[in-house]
């Protein structure tokens, strides 16, 4: 919460404004109190009368540090306590027992600058003991003006970092682990000795790299841009029992020191791991005008400056009278890292994109417009999204447009497949199938065309999955085909291929059997059947060897135990020993026989 200006001083606490209405105090489902109206709070016996409405809707909570003026009186009008008489408001933490329970419970219903009269029953007041000026079991009244409060947060839920919010931030977004931060801070010991301070203009760093002490990034993660706080940091989140030596002009920090940190999160630049493997990062310098990103298949117009890590510029587009670059995302018209990053940008956004060689120019030397990009270079683009036109969505199309677009996407996928670009081909097939999904309302004459397109895209998608070793994906797509064409030989064949790769040999055998029932002379299926039998034979041999090895120790232990019994009892219990040995041997034989059956 914001620390409000205390200049407004309501001197007549008892004065009632009949036209005012309190906006924020709501008890259960009751409407807000009107000025002059009284209500019991939560059936507790505590009553509240609104004397003057506050500002806004926010109210403090237990744990917050409030500043109030109050006048405490008995029912006969006698005053027993008054901050007004002392001409100094009182500051305390709600819910810590620093005031009577009734005052705590009443203040959490108040808004900034609100004035209210609380009638407090004995069990929420001074009880049987009373206090100076308050007889035992007395009902008392408090006229309260809520001047301000500071929200208090236990950052780690262990009391190690207490955050008092002095000024709220101006955005409802908190920084993440990758983001670049600009902060200002001043660090003091409890005796007010300054032991660290950021430069006047602040200091920039990445959240993941940390700053000063462990408490700093932990607290910043809970802050919003523009937020100002005071941190009370226990030693375990500061410098522990070691302390810190003197640095620059600042003195040392003694062991086990509690630190007081005035901290401001001036701003932060969001950093996004575009590819999810820390190979392409996008740092947003200027956010776009809206939240809609270009996405895959959009026609984008960008301008950029491209540099090496040492600052050498190797390419520029869209500056000094040169036309900006226009391309279609996800069509390999630019390097992969730039393509994927631009697809996440909004109109008007300006970002720095850092691209590792795997998504850049790889291990080869490349000649660009201005300079050469050496092999295995990390490259940096400062990109601005000038405009983009998103690919038309299926719901924006007529049924005939959907069919035509699906056919075109499928053909694009076929060309990519023939070029060995299986991942991109798979995306094309998926998009094509989406355009003619069951959600469409196609006419009777179109159903056959739609079904043919769907089956073709799913089968081709399954072929891509097999090339990409995505066997579960291939099984899923083939199963879609078989749901509508029970004896589709291609679907059965490709699903059997996938089952063989995942060692589901019995399921592969079933699919091959169905495929041969549908097409007994299919040479490819027959060859697969032969390969499957070979795999099954090898699998059975491995299983037999595995089970044999598992039970070998059991057989050895049985033999040793039998010999031991024979030796110990040979003289006087020879007959009994022979019986025991015979029974043990039977157990061993029985175990071997069982494994042989299981392994077959």
UniProtKB/TrEMBL annotation:
UniProt entry tagged with the keyword Nuclease: no
TPR repeats: 489-522
Top-level taxonomic group: Eukaryota
Catalytic activity: [protein]-peptidylproline (omega=180) = [protein]-peptidylproline (omega=0)
Cross-referenced InterPro entries: FKBP4/5/8-like, PPIase_dom_sf, PPIase_FKBP_dom, TPR-like_helical_dom_sf, TPR_rpt
Record-linked Pfam families: FKBP_C (PF00254), TPR_19 (PF14559)
SUPFAM superfamilies referenced in this protein's UniProt entry, alphabetically: FKBP-like (SSF54534), TPR-like (SSF48452)
Entry's family note: Belongs to the FKBP-type PPIase family.
Protein name per UniProt: peptidylprolyl isomerase
């Amino acid at each position: 919460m914001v620390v409000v200006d205390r200049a407004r001083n309501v001197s007549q606490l008892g004065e009632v404004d009949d036209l005012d209405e309190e906006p924020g105090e709501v008890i259960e489902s009751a409407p807000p109190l009107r000025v002059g109206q009284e209500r019991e709070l939560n059936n507790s016996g505590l009553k509240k009368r609104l004397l003057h409405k506050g500002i806004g809707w926010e109210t403090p909570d237990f744990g917050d540090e409030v500043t109030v003026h109050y006048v405490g009186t008995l029912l006969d009008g006698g005053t027993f306590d008054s901050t007004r008489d002392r001409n100094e408001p009182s500051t305390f933490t709600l819910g810590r027992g620093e005031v009577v329970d009734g005052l705590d419970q009443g203040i959490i219903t108040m808004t900034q600058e609100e004035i209210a009269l609380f009638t407090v029953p004995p069990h929420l007041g001074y009880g049987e003991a009373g206090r100076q000026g308050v007889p035992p079991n007395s009902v008392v009244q408090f006229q309260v003006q809520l001047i301000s409060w500071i929200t208090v947060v236990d950052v780690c839920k262990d009391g190690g970092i207490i955050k008092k919010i002095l000024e709220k931030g101006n955005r409802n977004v908190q920084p993440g682990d990758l983001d670049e931060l600009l902060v200002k801070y001043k660090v003091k010991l409890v005796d007010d000795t300054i032991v660290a301070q950021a430069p006047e203009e602040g200091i920039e760093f990445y959240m993941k790299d940390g700053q000063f002490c462990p408490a700093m990034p932990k607290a910043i993660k809970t802050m919003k841009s523009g937020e100002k706080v005071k941190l009370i940091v226990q030693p375990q989140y500061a410098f522990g029992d070691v302390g810190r030596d003197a640095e620059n002009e600042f003195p040392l920090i003694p062991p086990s020191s509690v630190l007081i940190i005035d901290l401001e999160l001036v701003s932060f630049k969001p950093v996004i791991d575009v590819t999810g493997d820390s190979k392409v990062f996008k740092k947003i310098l200027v956010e776009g005008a809206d939240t809609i990103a270009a996405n895959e298949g959009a026609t984008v117009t960008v301008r950029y400056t491209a540099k090496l890590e040492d600052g050498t510029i190797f390419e520029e587009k869209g500056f000094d009278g040169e036309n900006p670059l226009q391309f279609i995302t996800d069509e390999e018209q630019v390097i992969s890292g730039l393509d994927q990053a631009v697809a996440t940008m909004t109109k008007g956004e300006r970002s720095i994109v850092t691209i590792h060689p795997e998504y850049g120019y790889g291990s080869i030397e490349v000649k660009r417009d201005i300079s050469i990009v050496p092999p295995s270079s990390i490259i940096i683009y400062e990109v601005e999204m000038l405009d983009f036109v998103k690919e038309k969505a299926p719901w924006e199309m007529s049924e005939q447009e959907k069919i035509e677009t699906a056919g075109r996407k499928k053909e694009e996928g076929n060309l990519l497949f023939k070029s060995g670009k299986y991942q991109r081909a798979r995306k094309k097939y998926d998009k094509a199938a989406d355009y003619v999904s069951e959600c469409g309302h196609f006419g009777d004459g179109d159903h056959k065309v739609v079904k043919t397109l769907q089956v073709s895209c799913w089968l081709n998608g399954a072929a891509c999955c097999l090339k990409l070793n995505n066997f579960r994906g291939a099984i899923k797509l083939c199963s879609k085909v078989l749901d509508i064409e029970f004896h589709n030989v291609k679907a059965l064949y490709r699903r059997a291929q996938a089952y063989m790769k995942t060692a589901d040999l019995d399921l592969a055998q079933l699919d091959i059997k169905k495929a041969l029932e549908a097409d007994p002379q299919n040479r490819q299926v027959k060859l697969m059947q032969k390969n499957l039998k070979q795999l099954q034979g090898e699998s059975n041999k491995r299983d037999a060897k595995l089970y044999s090895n598992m039970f070998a120790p059991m057989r050895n232990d049985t033999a040793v135990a039998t010999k031991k019994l024979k030796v110990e009892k040979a003289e006087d219990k020879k007959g009994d020993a022979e019986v025991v040995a015979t029974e043990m041997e039977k157990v061993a034989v029985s175990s071997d026989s069982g494994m042989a059956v299981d392994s077959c």
